Amino acid sequence: MANASAKNGNGARNDKARIWGGIDLGGTKIEAVIVDARGDVLGRARHPTPPTGGPGEVVKELYGTLGEAAQSVGIEPGKLAGVGVGVPGSVDANKGTLSHTANVAGGWDAPYPLASDLGDLVGGKVMLGNDVQVAVAAEYKLGAGRGHRSVLGVWWGTGVGGGLVLNGVPWRGQGSAGEIGHMVVKPNGARCGCGRRGCLEAYAGRACMERKARSAAKKGEKTLLFDIMRDKKRTRLSSSVWASALKQKDPLATRLIERAIEMMGVAIASVINLLDLEAVVIGGGLGSRLGPLYMGHLQDAMHPHLFITERKPAMRIAELGDLSGAIGAALLAGPQM
């Protein structure tokens, strides 16, 4: 437990050994937390992700969100023991660069030195990790993955990300391991945001489903999705919009979500066949919101594709919710559970 000055805002701490910052960069939101050595969240803040502007605008907003979270516990970002950031795309942790990101601020392909640029603002070292990989590591240590030695995390949101823990060790490969969203589930299938065809994300990613919904509505298909979006004062089909449409049995929303579940079943079963994992943790905005309702459907979609049907993996919903990515990023920066 952090001391009273950190929790109640009675002055910034000079001790750099006990408080860390973690930031989760998503396609629509940036979440920042301040955690103690046990991973307990002391403060948090959320800002919208810049829709355009590229990496420069993203870095500014990352710093602003971290600053607000730090201020909530009475500390300046520069006084934190360390800062970690979970980001979507290909990460070179040694160089602190992010590349091949499609769903953030217009996207970019070339490696960008995000860690050093943010570190200049923070006034300290910043660690970089893939967003889903760090979220899965947090769930493995503190949440739904506890008690299992091998875990697949599937983060269903703006895109579809994945992370792996093998024999108790997070598996990052060369920086892009676990990209289940870009497994091809249908050769020459739907166009994905990455430019290829048939990726899981092309069927299950929220951004791709929204494009499909807009195209269908433009062609005259009836749907409540966009009425709900306007009623909720959203500019995108957020997870809450999809959930409301499903509750009202909207035909288009139901069809697109069921198609997403079918394709997720194909991809997850294929990973299980390859690695024989003990557990699957479903997270992300859509995953956390719709997972409890659709977990049975997902297991049914996996079943025809499993090689060993009598030994199914345990299926879990992420316990840390929206904060798993930010907590995992903070753990990346220093706290060891």
TrEMBL record:
<keyword id="KW-0418">Kinase</keyword>
<dbReference type="InterPro" id="IPR000600">
    <property type="entry name" value="ROK"/>
</dbReference>
<keyword id="KW-0808">Transferase</keyword>
<dbReference type="GO" id="GO:0016301">
    <property type="term" value="F:kinase activity"/>
</dbReference>
<dbReference type="Pfam" id="PF00480">
    <property type="entry name" value="ROK"/>
</dbReference>
<dbReference type="InterPro" id="IPR043129">
    <property type="entry name" value="ATPase_NBD"/>
</dbReference>
<protein>
    <submittedName>
        <fullName>Glucokinase</fullName>
    </submittedName>
</protein>
<comment type="similarity">
    <text>Belongs to the ROK (NagC/XylR) family.</text>
</comment>
